[in-house]
Amino acid sequence: MPRTDVTQMSFAMLYPLLVNKAVKKGRTREEVDQVTAWLTGYSPEELACLEQSGTSYGDFFRNAPAMNPRRALITGKVCGVQVETIEDPLLQAIRQLDKLVDELAKGRPMEKILRT
């Protein structure tokens, strides 16, 4: 079976998976929106609109209003891969969001997740 490129999958399909992962661990959609907004510069309202659109996951990151310069502080493994060593900027951004949601789901305090 061919492997689907995550960048071509729809944001509307993938974002709820991130939200569900955090909610199952006692966090909220608002918190997922907050870490996503911190990383990408999208407002919660824009995220809600994007969930109703046909935007691909790749385009979600490519068109991000303001990728946070502090995202370079996001380190650690996601799916066995060191986030900071990923060379493709698009794939690195995708994994950075995965890492932020992982930290949220593990109960890490928001100020630590947002690298403040």
Quick recap:
The chain is built from six helices and two strands. With 116 residues, the chain is mostly helical.
General description of the model:
By secondary structure, the chain is mainly alpha-helical. The chain has six helices and two strands, in the order ααααββαα. It has helices at 11-24, 29-40, 44-51, 57-62, 89-105, 110-113, and strands at residues 77-78, 81-82. A two-stranded antiparallel sheet has the order 1-2. The protein is globular, with a radius of gyration of 13 Å. It starts with 10 loop residues before the first helix and ends with a helix. 25% of the residues are buried.
List keywords for this structure.
116 residues; mainly alpha; two-stranded antiparallel sheet; globular; SP1917_dom_sf; DUF2200 domain-containing protein; UCP033199
Blueprint (SSEs and pairs):
Layout: H1 11-24, H2 29-40, H3 44-51, H4 57-62, E1 77-78, E2 81-82, H5 89-105, H6 110-113
Antiparallel strand pairs: 1-2
Helix pairs in contact: 1-5, 2-5
User: From the alpha-carbon coordinates, what is the Rg to the nearest angstrom?
Assistant: 13 Å
The outline comes out as: globular
Could you list the spans in which at least 5 consecutive residues all have pLDDT below 50? none
Report strand order across the widest sheet: 1-2
The count of β-strands is 2
Helix content percent band: 40-55%
The succession of helices and strands, N to C, reads HHHHEEHH
Pfam family, one: DUF2200
Protein name: DUF2200 domain-containing protein
InterPro entries: SP1917_dom_sf (IPR023204), UCP033199 (IPR014580)
Organism: Candidatus Allofournierella pullicola
